[in-house]
């Protein structure tokens, strides 16, 4: 399943990180719709809002269906046919949608057949492993390249930094029965977990790896539903590391949420000089910080233009990013 994510980029940097090439091969950045509503977070849970990509044609009928826009939507799908006056009165949880029933359940089938497909963006997602002593949280994300720590400059043609995780989702638009502002909501599609992460949990989000998969999922006018759903499958191209139970409370929203820990030792971030310095820098980089502007947020790579990253290069990058040099690396489970 997927019940918690992190997405720490500011609105402008998120847009730059989502650069892509259109049908004519031109490099584009998706336009933000209601960017002022977006709030970065190291710890997003259902019912909060998060950034998604969708085709502009959903909002403008004469638009090119391959053109992308960014929108902040509420997590937890409210179907357009829902009749009550309060979306919080939904009688069941719609934050996740199982791939094997998404064309059967009424909450998702109608929206999916109408092409309401979106890509949910995140730094990565959290999952909890059940064991005799309780639950151990992990942070799961795409492998990274050396560029993940590169300090790009404003105006650089190519975005440098962390590769965003791109999860397949379904969205819908609900209008209050008494009238009022339309509410856009989404659900994250889940599949059976891949071998490497199945020991943590038996389900995982459906991850779209690379721009071709993203293009096909978003372009509902060119790619019919029956073809698009073939993209929904587990991926092995992810890595993970254990994190502190500090992330258990959704009220905790700091870089410590995704900092690696050493299992078997104290499950807290070690207070090394390097970790203190980097964590302090990350805190100051958060949206609205008086000490750093958005342009100085950590740089993240646009995966939409590059081929999938190699699988073995991310551990040191994450350690360096969080100032965790010399501590346990992100790992993949041995077969």
Automatic annotation (TrEMBL):
Its EC number is 3.4.-.-. InterPro entries: SRAP (IPR003738), SRAP-like (IPR036590). GO terms for biological process: protein-DNA covalent cross-linking repair; proteolysis. Pfam families: SRAP. Keywords: Covalent protein-DNA linkage, DNA damage, DNA-binding, Hydrolase, Lyase, Protease. Gene3D superfamilies: SOS response associated peptidase-like. GO terms for molecular function: lyase activity; peptidase activity; single-stranded DNA binding. It comes from the Eukaryota. Signal peptide: none annotated. It is an enzyme of class 3 (hydrolase). The keyword Magnesium does not apply. Sensor of abasic sites in single-stranded DNA (ssDNA) required to preserve genome integrity by promoting error-free repair of abasic sites. Acts as an enzyme that recognizes and binds abasic sites in ssDNA at replication forks and chemically modifies the lesion by forming a covalent cross-link with DNA: forms a stable thiazolidine linkage between a ring-opened abasic site and the alpha-amino and sulfhydryl substituents of its N-terminal catalytic cysteine residue. The HMCES DNA-protein cross-link is then either reversed or degraded. Belongs to the SOS response-associated peptidase family. This is Abasic site processing protein HMCES.
């Amino acid at each position: 399943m997927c019940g918690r994510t992190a997405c720490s980029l500011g609105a402008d940097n998120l847009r730059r990180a989502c650069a892509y090439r259109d049908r004519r091969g031109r490099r584009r950045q998706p336009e933000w719709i209601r960017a002022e509503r977006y709030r970065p977070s190291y710890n997003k849970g259902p019912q909060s809002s998060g950034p998604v990509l969708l085709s502009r044609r959903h909002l403008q009928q004469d638009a090119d269906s391959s053109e992308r826009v960014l929108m902040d939507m509420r997590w937890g799908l409210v179907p357009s046919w829902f009749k009550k006056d309060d979306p919080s009165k939904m009688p069941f949880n719609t934050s996740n949608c199982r791939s094997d029933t998404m064309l059967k359940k009424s909450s998702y089938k109608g929206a999916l057949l109408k092409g309401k497909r979106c890509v949910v963006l995140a730094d990565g997602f959290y999952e909890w492993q059940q064991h005799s002593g309780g639950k151990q949280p992990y942070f799961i994300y795409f492998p990274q390249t050396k560029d993940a720590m590169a300090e790009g400059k404003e105006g650089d043609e190519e975005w440098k930094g962390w590769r965003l995780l791109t999860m397949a989702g379904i969205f819908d638009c609900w209008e209050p029965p008494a009238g009022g502002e339309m509410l856009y909501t989404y659900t994250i599609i889940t599949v059976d977990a891949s071998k490497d992460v199945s020991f943590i949990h038996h389900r995982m989000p459906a991850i779209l790896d690379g721009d071709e998969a993203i293009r096909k999922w978003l372009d509902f006018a060119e790619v019919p539903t029956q073809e698009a759903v073939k993209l929904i499958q587990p991926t092995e191209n992810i890595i993970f590391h254990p994190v502190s139970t500090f992330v258990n409370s959704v009220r905790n929203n700091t870089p410590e949420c995704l900092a690696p820990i050493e299992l078997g030792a104290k499950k807290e971030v070690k207070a090394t000089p390097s970790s203190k310095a980097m964590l302090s820098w990350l805190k100051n980089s958060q949206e609205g910080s008086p000490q750093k502007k958005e342009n100085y947020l950590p740089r993240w790579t646009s995966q939409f233009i590059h081929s999938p990253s190699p699988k073995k290069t991310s551990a040191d990058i994450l350690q360096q990013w969080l100032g965790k040099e010399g501590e346990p690396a992100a790992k993949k489970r041995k077969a």
